[in-house]
Amino acid sequence: IVLMDTSLSMQWEKLERSYAAAAQLLQSLGPEDRFNLLLYNTHVESFKPAPVKAELAAVTAAMDWLRQSHLRGGTNLQNALQAGLDQIGMSDATQNSSLVLLTDGDATRGVIQTGKLADWYATEWKKIPVDRRPKTDAFAVGDDANLPLLRILSRNGGVMEQAYVACWPT
User: Fold this and answer.
1) What confidence tens digit (pLDDT) does each residue in 125-153 have?
2) Which of 23, 79, 106, 161 has its CA 20 to 30 A from that of 17?
């Protein structure tokens, strides 16, 4: 399940890097894999109601859907994470599931404090049976990414990577 931040804080190069990462990730899936793409800002929108097979037509349609999306509003990371966990619950996979966050981690809506958000997520994640718990991978985008939060979230079975964004002097 790919959770892509489409809030206003992701404009310009952050969005380009996130888009490239999403494209590479989706194109690396095999036809036996299942996926869904969730875009979030103040609200969460999903490509499909539940994960679908990663066949070429579905991946192409997801990328087209992503291209037509717009940046808007703040960032409700808590809602996005809950929606991602809900998608895992809809999947028939019993292992090897992942939530992949493409974000700067700058929560501005819902629970916004790093410690509280991380504790909430860990509690929700642990409610999932051990054999169905997703890896939580975070792709921190930008030199202003909330690295402490994304590191803590990725401790739930995943990893964190950071993509810096070039800053040009004005």
Assistant:
1) 999 998 889 999 998 888 888 899 999 99
2) 79
